[in-house]
Amino acid sequence: MSNGSSYAKQFMSHRAVLQDILSRVPDDKFDFQPWANAMTLGNLALHMVTSADWFAQSVKAGTFGRPEKVEATSMEEVRRIVDEYTAKTKTTIDALTEAQIEGMVDGKAIFGMDAPGKVWLGSMKDHEVHHKGQMFVYARIAGVEEMPFFVSRDA
């Protein structure tokens, strides 16, 4: 297993849980917000998947560009986009070389610092875990009663 494969496996142990949670969210909860200025449930999911892909693409490129913006209007669309981005991001991470993982990635323009790819991959995972925790709360408040374990051992 290459280093990229190891990072991809860790990533999927968390992303698979997001996909599971979203499969349980009722279709009419796309616009659910737990408070007035919160991201909607649908937009939180899109933020998670586009951000993870942005981190992975940046490690691959050696520099941070602009994250992609995607929009959806339904939970069905959100689930489709999440699945597409998950496959894309996993493929990108899986293909990362030792040089990309260990090499410096220019993050000054956005984060004020450069760091090795592995640092940014760690930040990607931390970001995923942070928002996955929020998604657990969103889903519970939105009426999802049965939730998955916080990490998938099958991914």
TrEMBL record:
Q: Does this entry carry the keyword Hydrolase? A: no
Where is a divalent metal cation bound in this sequence? 47, 127, 131
GO MF terms listed in the record are: metal ion binding
Q: State the UniProt keywords alphabetically.
A: Metal-binding
Alphabetized Pfam families for the sequence: DinB
Q: Classify the source by domain of life.
A: Bacteria
Cite the Gene3D superfamilies for this sequence. dinb family like domain
> Which segments does the entry list as coiled coil?
none
Instruction: Name the SUPFAM superfamilies on file.
Output: DinB/YfiT-like putative metalloenzymes (SSF109854)
User: Which family, according to the similarity comment?
Assistant: Belongs to the DinB family.
Name of the molecule in the record: DinB family protein
Provenance organism: Alicyclobacillus mengziensis
